[in-house]
């Protein structure tokens, strides 16, 4: 059989490989009406699966398109116990407001509210953890401070710091003894550095 267009080829292949229309329709009806939200499945993912099942059903036979309120009932009854309170609230609505879009909107709003609560809880825990860490750090600093009060510097004999942290200048005798071993690169004499050479820099 020769097909003139790609559309004709597609239709021919579809007829060859698709299961019988009645069996396929029965399978799609069962899939659509039996679809359920999986445990821990995101609401958006479940809604997408429901929409795809509906689209497949309509593609197989447009007469099988479910009515709007049927879709709303399926969404409510198969969304899971996580949304039990919201479902009970929706059951109190006026009949005119009971549409698939409004039910979906109400469930999505509740889902987003829960996500915001979870995010703010995590943020709050992070702030508390940081605050606790800061308190521990502050107490450690104060403990270190009290410990240092008992330390005596062997350079200046003052309490409160180690010799390595001493801010007091070394004594002149220490400076002199240190400089005695220094050799000036300008004049070659000992006792001073090149930048302090009394002869000055000779080019």
TrEMBL record:
Instruction: Show the InterPro entries listed in the entry.
Output: Znf_CCHC (IPR001878), Znf_CCHC_NABP (IPR051714), Znf_CCHC_sf (IPR036875)
Alphabetized Gene3D superfamilies for the sequence: Zinc finger, CCHC-type
Residues in CCHC-type domain copies: 153-166, 184-199
Q: Name the domain of life this protein comes from.
A: Eukaryota
Q: Which UniProt keywords apply?
A: Metal-binding, Zinc, Zinc-finger
Q: Name one Pfam family in it.
A: zf-CCHC
What are the recorded GO MF terms, alphabetically? nucleic acid binding; zinc ion binding
Among PANTHER family, the record links this protein to: ZINC FINGER CCHC DOMAIN CONTAINING PROTEIN
Would you tell me the protein name for this molecule? CCHC-type domain-containing protein
């Amino acid at each position: 059989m020769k097909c003139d267009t790609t559309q004709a080829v597609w239709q021919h292949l579809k007829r060859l490989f698709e299961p019988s229309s009645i069996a396929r329709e029965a399978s799609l009806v069962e899939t659509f009406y039996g679809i359920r939200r999986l445990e821990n499945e995101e609401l958006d993912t479940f809604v997408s699966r429901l929409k795809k099942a509906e689209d497949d059903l309509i593609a197989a036979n447009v007469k099988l398109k479910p009515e709007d309120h049927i879709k709303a009932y399926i969404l409510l009854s198969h969304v899971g116990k996580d949304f039990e309170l919201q479902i009970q609230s929706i059951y109190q609505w006026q009949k005119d407001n009971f549409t698939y879009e409004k039910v979906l909107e109400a469930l999505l709003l509740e889902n987003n509210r829960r996500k915001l609560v979870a995010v703010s809880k995590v943020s709050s825990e992070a702030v508390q953890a940081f605050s606790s860490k800061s308190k521990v750090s502050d107490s450690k600093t104060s403990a270190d401070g009290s410990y240092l009060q008992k330390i005596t510097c062997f350079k200046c004999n003052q309490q409160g710091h180690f010799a390595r942290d001493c801010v007091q200048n070394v004594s002149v005798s220490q400076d002199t003894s240190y400089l005695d071993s220094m050799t000036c690169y300008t004049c070659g004499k000992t006792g001073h550095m090149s930048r302090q050479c009394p002869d000055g820099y000779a080019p």
